[in-house]
Amino acid sequence: MRISVLVAEDEPDIALLVKHALERAGDARVKIASSGDAAVRAALEEAIDLVILDINLPVLNGFEVCRILRQRPATSRLPIIMLTARTGEVDRVRGLELGADDYVTKPFSPRELAARVRAVLRRGGSGLSGDVYTSAHLSVDFAAIAVTVDNVPVRLTRREFELLACLLRHRNRVLSRVRLLERVWGGDQTIDARAIDVHVGRLRAKLGLAGTQVETVIGFGYRFIDDVA
Ligand code: CA
User: Fold this and answer.
1) Which of 72, 132, 165, 204 could form a disulfide with 211 if both were Cys (CB 3.0 to 4.6 A apart)?
2) How far is CA 18 from the centre of its chain?
3) In a domain, 127, yes or no
4) pTM of the predicted model over 0.70
5) 84 CA → ligand 1 middle, Å
6) What are 178-222's pLDDT values in tens digits?
7) Do 35 and 71 lie in a common domain?
């Protein structure tokens, strides 16, 4: 699956350098935001998998953006790599204290940045270690394409697995039907909203006790919640 990376950087040549580094390294699609407020908006509204966040940004600086994203449930676990021109330890510590997952100091090597992105995505958020997701009832092995509920294997179609993987990778965040259509069906125009609902319904039924983790957000779409209280 292609990952979506948001690059929050106001200097166009650095933003483009990062974009090229990540797109060359493989399956990344990069979106650029050139101010802090635009970065917050994009992170909240779009299906972003990781943010590369410059500190010196107009309107809201990187620290403020990081704090806001960590406070919002939809982005509280969104991986963030801080990008800073400064080498001061204070900035690095502050970024990590605010919940950034890693930092890269400018000038950076594009290859190093791409490696950091891969490492942060591998670590994932809570419940996702390496290529395996686990919750109270559910276990999903992305590499083996294997799903179990209470240790009993569940047979999913390829589409159902992709749907589950997409919801899981953006868990705790609402995915609209339009996003799901783009991500899981490649924007296939012959699929309508009701067909997506049918697929989600089938997936939910197959997941049994873990099915309650797939939540309907009326009027918007669906959200995979990490664990049911
Ligand atoms: Ca900057």
Assistant:
1) 204
2) 18
3) no
4) no
5) 8
6) 888 888 887 788 888 889 999 999 999 999 999 999 999 888 889
7) yes
Tell me which residue range forms the domain holding 171: 132-224
The alpha carbon of 55 and the centre of ligand 1 are apart by a number of angstroms equal to: 6
Instruction: Confirm whether 88 is domain-assigned.
Output: yes
CATH of the domain at 185: 1.10.10.10
Find the 63 Cα to ligand 1 centroid distance in Å: 12
- Mutual orientation of helices 177-185 and 158-169 as an angle, nearest 10°? 130
Q: Looking at the structure, do residues 82 and 175 belong to the same domain, yes or no? A: no
CA–CA dist 173, 77 (Å, integer) = 10
Tokens of 226: 């990490």
Give me ligand 1 centre to Cα 10, in Å.
5
Number of H helices, E strands in the chain: 8, 13
The 10s digit of each residue's pLDDT in 30-77 is: 999 999 999 999 999 888 889 999 999 999 999 999 999 988 877 877
78-129 confidence digits (pLDDT tens): 899 998 776 667 777 778 778 888 888 888 888 888 888 888 877 654 344 4
Question: Do the domain assignments include residue 229?
Answer: no
Q: Note whether 122 and 129 are within 8 A (CB).
A: no
Q: Cα(52) to centroid of ligand 1, in Å?
A: 12
- What is the whole-number distance in angstroms between the Cα of residue 88 and the centre of ligand 1? 16
Q: Kindly give the distance from the C-alpha atom of residue 11 to the centroid of ligand 1, in angstroms, as a whole number.
A: 6
- How many angstroms is it from 8 CA to the middle of ligand 1? 8
pLDDT of residue 123: 65
